[in-house]
């Protein structure tokens, strides 16, 4: 499975961005994967942002983004999204999408990773 993240960019504080992560090579099995978004600031550890179950019946968010970010997926398009609203300078990071089987996973339990897309929020 190959994951391609896109949608990053430069935005002012309070603005919005929508990240996309397109999966290829997964065939019909994309819908069987839990999809997650993580982020990392250079020099810091990678941190969990959000996850969505294979059926979209369950979602999970880090407390720092609850109420501002929304994860969703379109299994027909093999794509997962991260809508980010009310962005803050501390949201600045490289955002990665990842895929795994199961739920309530740590980052090292994710099997497939995208290349990352940079989000920069200016104050």
Topology diagram in text:
Elements: E1 2-6, E2 9-12, E3 17-24, E4 34-40, E5 47-52, E6 59-61, E7 69-74, E8 79-84, E9 93-100, E10 112-113, E11 117-122
Parallel strand pairs: 2-11
Antiparallel strand pairs: 1-3, 3-8, 4-5, 4-9, 5-6, 7-8, 9-10, 9-11
Give an overview in words.
There is one protein chain. With 123 residues, the protein is mostly beta strands.
Overall mean pLDDT stands at 94
Uncertain runs are none
| Main pleated-sheet profile | 7 strands, mixed
Q: Give the helix/strand class.
A: mainly beta
- The rounded Rg comes to 13 Å
Overall, the morphology is globular
Distance between the termini: 37 Å
Number of strands: 11
Order of helices and strands: EEEEEEEEEEE
Helicity level:
under 10%
Q: How much of the sequence is in beta strands?
A: over 45%
The number of distinct helices, counting runs of at least 4 residues, comes to 0
Short summary of the structure?
It is built from no helices and 11 strands.
